[in-house]
Structures are given as structure tokens and as C-alpha cells.
Amino acid sequence: MENNSLEKPLILEERPPKTTPVNAALTFAWRALLRIRYIPEQLFDVTAFPIIFLLMFTYLFGGAISGSTGEYLNFVLPGILVMTVSMITMYTGLDLNKDIEKGVFDRFRSLPIWQPAVLVGALLVDVVRYSLASTIMITLGYILGFRAEAGFIGVILAVLVILFFSFSLSWVWTILGIIVRSEKALMAISMMLLFPLTFLSSVFVDPSTMPNWLQRFVEINPITFVVDASRGLIHGYDVTSELLTITYISLGLIAVFGTLTMYFFRNKE
Amino acid sequence: MNQSNRTYAVEADQLVKAFGKERAVDGISLKVPKGIVYGFLRPNGAGKTTMIRMLATLLKPTEGQATVMGHDLIKEADEVRRSISLTGQFASVDEELSGRENLVFIGRLVGFSRKEAKERADDLLAAFNLQHAAKRQVKKYSGGMRRRIDIAASIVISPELLFLDKPTAGLDPRSRNEVWDIIRALVRKGTTVFLTTQYLEEADQLADLIGVIDRGVLIAEGTSEELKSSIGIRSLIIEFENEKDLDETASIFTKMFTQAPEVDRTHLSLSVTMKDQSKAAKAIG
Hints:
The complex is a heterodimer. Chain A is mainly alpha-helical.
């Protein structure tokens, strides 16, 4: 290496101005998109998951629960949509956990940037991923005979509600991503939380068919509210109270888990 | 800003970092003048990395305080981050992205426009002899290339103080020399470098001031010559914080060298003359 050519770029006389929080977050989002380009398998969860889930549950339960798969599809699609997107929120935590393990996280934390940008950027790209999953599932649903009574607008509104809730739910995984030490343990914990949360809800069956004690849990499960609201929006009945509850829950999740995440982020040892 | 802020890159006062009961850094005070290479020398697990992580705002000190480039480590963490950069086993780059993408990414984060960030990335890649691998994913880099891209990523905006954790660990001699050249060039341009190393030779070659750290405590400090001569002329002078430590060490040394060391109670120091060099090395090691 020639010293002359080496030394020239070493010292910059001018420093650029500090970047804005929005720019920092967008830059992190750009990084996440670049990574998808290198590892397209990362999209497996948002492409294959929805297809498998929809086909599997429609044809597995359809006959038994509704007497016909066609009718069941109309009932179950909004539910599976919520379930799938809620489940893939956990990958947010897994990605973050990997960054920490690899050491990139330490570089980010030592940069003079608005620190939450690391997480906000990742979550922005996740919202894109959730939208992709939703689009795939709804398209497949239409091919299989699904019809939304409230039309296309209803579907869009339902997806927006799901995206908002999922974004809020993601903050639970960011905490776990920071504090849990191995990817395997994180996966196990996430599954342990997500399976009961998604299955013990109104995703697959009408809660009135369940035993009383279970109904009580299902009725307070946030997933149930999101599923009911999506169903209502898609099939055209009034779900104002559900929407209000979801707004409270989501803002609550962001306030509590967002704050905790930032606390752990700053004090990570 | 007072006088000392202008002279010292790092001023640490009794820094302590405890993880539960274990005190990884147990009261280290040090002053690093600006413009030099300061080297922490010791085998692994002596608290070097913890000390650097604290000074780079990644860990909060349990006790004590420090200023880095004149900024309070805790109260002005953001200002500290603006003047430092770190590279090493911990602060790394994204292995999935190419070398160039990593540099552009960091350039964008520190405030460059897209065009400036790209120009800066290309300049650095050229300077670090990595143009040919610019578009290759970092995970496919060799050890030496990997370390060079790590350092390049740390100087996208020129830091006033650069932390390097074990910069040449595991490198072949040629790559090691390349990294040394980079460090020397940075120092010539006015960057202060604070590095840790397990290699005596590296500390000797690069560091203007060497701190020897053991079990979280700074046990010796000086230039390479000073440290060598303290072993060479077979006499060792140690200063203590309190009389209890002084007495304890004096009794250990009496056993080791079958001769009582000279104890100076007014300066809380002790000096021993040693006939056996290997014992002397063992005593300060």
C-alpha cells in the first residue's frame, strides 16, 4: 500500500451535518431492503407462510366447521390474515438478535445518530413485508373463491388495521431480541407466546362454541379484537368499538414496549 | 473548556464496571494525551474490552467518571459519539452487504448525501486497497480484507479518537503490517488511537504509551522503553493507592525474591531489585 494514496482520504476536513431522525431511519430501512436482495429466502416467511396457512386451514377445517370450504374461507381468511401477520412479526426480534450477535449493533450504538432509528428503520421494512404477505394471501383467497362483502375498500381498511396492530406488536419482539441471548431461545419464547395468542382467539372458530373459561380468555385476547374488526371491515358490519379497543391496545403496546425497548437498547451490556 | 480538555483525549477517573459480583474493570484511572497511540496490553479477559466499551459509550460505568475528547462520558454521550469511532471484534460491519454498500450505508447515517457517501466510499476502498472487492459481500472477504473494511467503516467521518479492539488478532504477518501502516498513517494525520492487544510486539511497534491491565486493574503504565527497562535493570517500583495493598504486596515479594523490598511509606511505593529476569516479568505480568 502506498502511503500517499492511503493518507489522502484518511482525514476529512469537513464534517457533514448530523443526519435527521427520518433520514437515519430510512437509511436503516434501505439496509434491510439490500439484505433482502442478497438473501431472498428472507421473504419465505411472508410468501410461503400465507399460502400454506390459507390452503391448509381452509381445507382442513372447512368441512368440519362450516360444512363447506367455500363458506369457511369467507369466515377464516380475515382470521388467518391476522394470524399470519402477527406470527411473522417475531422475525423483527430475530433479525435484531442476529445484528447484536454479529457485532453490527455495537457500531450502530456508537454512531452519533438518533438511536431509535435502528429499530424504526427495521420496523418500516417489516411493514412492507406484512403488506406483501397480506397481498399474497388475499390474492390467493380470491382465486379460491373468497368474496369480500364490503368490497375492495373494506379489504384495504382491514389490512391497514392489521399493519398498525402488527407494527405495535413488533415492539414486544424488539425487547426480546435485545435481551434474549441466543436465537434458538428467542425462537422458542416467541413461539410459546404466539401460538396460544393466535390460536386461542376468534381466528378459526366462533368463540361461543368454546367452554366458558376459554371464552373468557379469548374475549380479552387482543388478536380476537383485530380478527373481529378485520372481519367486520371486510364483510361490512359495524366494528367501531373493536377499532377503538385496537387503537388503545396498539398505542399501549407502543408506549410500554417501545419505551422498554429503548431502555434495554441504551443499557445493553 | 479547560486546559486538560485540550491536552487529553481520554481522562478516566476510577472507572469501575461490575457485572454482578464480577468487577471486570476495577477502578482504572488514566490519561491519554491527544495525538498518540495508547495501547492496552494483556491476555484476554483482563478487562481491556470492557474498558473500551465503556469509553465508547456502549457500557455505562458502574462507578467513576471519564471525559472523552473533553466530553463527559455519561452526560454528553452523543457528543462523545461524534468524536469517536470504534473497530474491532465487537463493532463490525454487515457481513451480508458488500464492502461498498457498508461504507455508503455508514456514510448516509453520518449525514452525507447519497453522492457524497458514494464518493467517500470509493475513496476509502481505493486507499485501503479494496476496490477489487468493493461489490463482494463482506462475509466472503479474507481476514485481512475484513479488518481493513472494519477500519474503513470506522473512519467514514474522521474520528478524533479511534478505538481499535485487537486490530490484528488472527491476521497473517502481511495483513498485520498493512493494518499497522493504516494505524500509523492515521496517527500522522492527527487521530488519537486507543488500542488493545495481546501482542507485546504490537504494543512495542505502535504504542507511544502502554498500559498493562490485569484483572480489571492498571498494574503498570509507561512507554515501551520504560516498561522494558523496569524489567531490564531488574528493579521495579510500584505505587499504591493505600497502605494495605502496599503491605500485602511487600509480603508477597519478600516470599518471591527471598529479600524484603524497599518500602517508601510517604509515597506509598515499593521497589525491589531483582536478580532473576523471568521472576521480574512474572511479578509485573
